[in-house]
Structure formats: C-alpha cells, structure tokens
C-alpha cells in the first residue's frame, strides 16, 4: 500500500514510521561502507533497497538487524530510539528477518525449525521445560499449533516432518520465511529473498510479499530488478555507500543518477 492511500495503520499513527534509520555511517577501517544513510519503513509498505555491487546493501541490512554497529546515526523503532539493536532482541522489537544463508538447523525438522522462531511466545522458563511442567507442555502445544498454521499459510505444511537438507532450495527458503513470520513481526527484513529462485518461484514470492504487506512493513534487499520494481512501494538506491535516490518505482526507473550508477556498473563489469 502506498503512503498516500494508507488508512488502516493497525495502531501505528501514520505520521510515525515503524522503523527509521537516520544518518547512518559505517566504516570498515579506511573504507566507508555507508555514509549518512537514512531509510524509513512504514506500516503496510514494501521498501526495497537496491544498488550496484559493493553499494552497501548488505551493510545496511546488517545495521537494521544489529549485526553491524554504525559509527554514527540513529535507529528508531515506533519513534523510540534503539541505540544498539541486538540480533537476539529483534523479536521483542517486533522485527524478524531472513538471511541469505537461510540459517536452518540441519538436525531439526521443518516444524521444529519454525518453532524456534516462535520462542518469544514461550512463557515458561528453561527449568520448567526441563521438568516437563504443565505450563511448559501447554506452551509447547501452542507454539506447535502456531508454527503449523504458518507452514500451512505458506503452502509447505506437507514438509513439516522433513529435514531441511532433503528439500528443494525454494522450499527451504519458505521454511526460513515461516520461521521469521511465526514471531508475528510488524517489520520483516528480507535479505536477497529471490536469490536462487527460478522465474515461477520468484513470481510467487512477489505475490507473497505483497500479501504480507497487508499486515506488516517489509524491507527487502535484492538484486532482481523485476521483483523489486513490481513488489515495492518505495525504493532506496545506494551507490558507493550513499543514497542516490529514494522514491516510488516509476520515479526510480527514470532517475538519471540511478541509470548512470547501473550503467557504470555494466561498464565496470
Ligand atoms: N566486514 C567488512 N570488512 C571490510 N569491508 C567490508 C566488510 N563488509 C563489507 N565491506 C565493504 O563495504 C562495501 C559495501 O559492501 P556490502 O557488502 O554492504 O555491499 P553490497 O551492496 O551488499 O554488495 P553486493 O551486492 O556485492 O553484495 C564494499 O566495498 C565491501 O567490500
């Protein structure tokens, strides 16, 4: 949904972005990977981040997830400053992410992998789980039911008892997405969601992301222009660590700085 026709914001006032990076700068030694980069993610919006190789996309994603700590800049979630988001605290901020590497546990079934993502709903502690106390058992049942529902939503419930390595890559990608969605995030961060997918799977992914944006904000970093252009409401374009354009897909496609950055990339290639 585009900003101008936002009506139902699900509780977050429309004046306030769900997630905001302001003036973020990241340096690796002498190399400036991000320079004064800002980005906002609004409820029910798909925001794409694109840019030529080495532009800083992964670094930006890693700042959002708390894997990389910026040297300067601010991060706000629902208007509140979050000076140092930590990867393991994302769920409690209402943020979930999928990574390029998927990060599935090979020794756990699909369902168990997804249940790991639902852990924030667990009310009982480690000791009661160890002793098999009643609260822990009911927690387990609820997490299982929630995880099964997400697998059903994503059309992969038939694989619930399979080990990830036995499944085709596109299904494994869905498992990773299910694990992120089961925490019921308000903001979903997707790193290269289309990588390794064929044309049909990519089309389905696009439809899925659009559908998800009915109930959350999505920030996606991806190389695939077709996907980004067709799915995103707004796009931020990075080049050499700087934002060179930000706006709706139509404007981005015609932006001279963007065209020249990508032409430059072809020339470099
Ligand atoms: N941990 C690191 N240490 C040193 N330099 C790094 C590190 N991570 C990234 N860089 C450098 O920062 C710049 C931005 O890298 P980044 O991976 O964020 O770009 P990208 O847009 O994701 O590139 P690609 O599309 O090729 O994945 C690059 O010059 C890269 O070499």
Automatic annotation (TrEMBL):
<keyword id="KW-0813">Transport</keyword>
<dbReference type="InterPro" id="IPR032823">
    <property type="entry name" value="BCA_ABC_TP_C"/>
</dbReference>
<dbReference type="InterPro" id="IPR027417">
    <property type="entry name" value="P-loop_NTPase"/>
</dbReference>
<dbReference type="InterPro" id="IPR003593">
    <property type="entry name" value="AAA+_ATPase"/>
</dbReference>
<feature type="domain" description="ABC transporter">
    <location>
        <begin position="19"/>
        <end position="265"/>
    </location>
</feature>
<dbReference type="GO" id="GO:0005886">
    <property type="term" value="C:plasma membrane"/>
</dbReference>
<dbReference type="GO" id="GO:0005524">
    <property type="term" value="F:ATP binding"/>
</dbReference>
<protein>
    <submittedName>
        <fullName>ABC-type branched-chain amino acid transport system, ATPase component</fullName>
    </submittedName>
</protein>
<dbReference type="Pfam" id="PF12399">
    <property type="entry name" value="BCA_ABC_TP_C"/>
</dbReference>
<keyword id="KW-0547">Nucleotide-binding</keyword>
<dbReference type="InterPro" id="IPR003439">
    <property type="entry name" value="ABC_transporter-like_ATP-bd"/>
</dbReference>
<keyword id="KW-0067">ATP-binding</keyword>
<dbReference type="Pfam" id="PF00005">
    <property type="entry name" value="ABC_tran"/>
</dbReference>
<dbReference type="GO" id="GO:0016887">
    <property type="term" value="F:ATP hydrolysis activity"/>
</dbReference>
<dbReference type="InterPro" id="IPR051120">
    <property type="entry name" value="ABC_AA/LPS_Transport"/>
</dbReference>
């Amino acid at each position: 949904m585009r900003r101008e026709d936002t009506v139902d914001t699900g509780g977050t006032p429309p004046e306030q972005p769900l997630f905001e990076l302001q003036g973020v700068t990241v340096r690796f030694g002498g190399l400036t990977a991000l320079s004064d980069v800002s980005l906002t993610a609004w409820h029910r919006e798909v925001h794409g981040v694109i840019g030529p190789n080495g532009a800083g996309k992964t670094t930006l994603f890693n700042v959002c997830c708390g894997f990389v700590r910026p040297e300067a800049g601010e991060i706000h979630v629902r208007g509140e400053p979050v000076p140092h988001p930590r990867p393991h605290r994302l769920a409690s901020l209402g943020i979930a992410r999928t990574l390029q590497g998927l990060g599935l546990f090979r020794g756990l079934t699909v369902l168990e992998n997804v249940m790991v993502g639902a852990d924030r709903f667990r009310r009982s502690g480690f000791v009661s789980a160890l002793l098999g106390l009643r609260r822990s058992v009911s927690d387990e049942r609820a997490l299982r039911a929630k995880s099964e529902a997400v697998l059903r939503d994503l059309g992969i419930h038939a694989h619930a008892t399979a080990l990830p390595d036995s499944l085709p890559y596109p299904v494994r990608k869905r498992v990773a997405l299910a694990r992120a969605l089961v925490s019921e995030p308000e903001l979903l961060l997707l790193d290269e969601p289309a990588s390794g997918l064929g044309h049909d799977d990519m089309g389905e992914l696009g439809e899925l992301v659009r559908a998800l944006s009915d109930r959350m904000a999505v920030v996606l970093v991806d190389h695939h222009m077709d996907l980004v252009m067709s799915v995103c409401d707004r796009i931020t374009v990075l080049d050499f660590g700087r934002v060179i354009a930000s706006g709706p897909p139509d404007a981005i496609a015609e932006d001279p700085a963007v065209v020249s950055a990508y032409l430059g990339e072809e020339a470099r290639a």
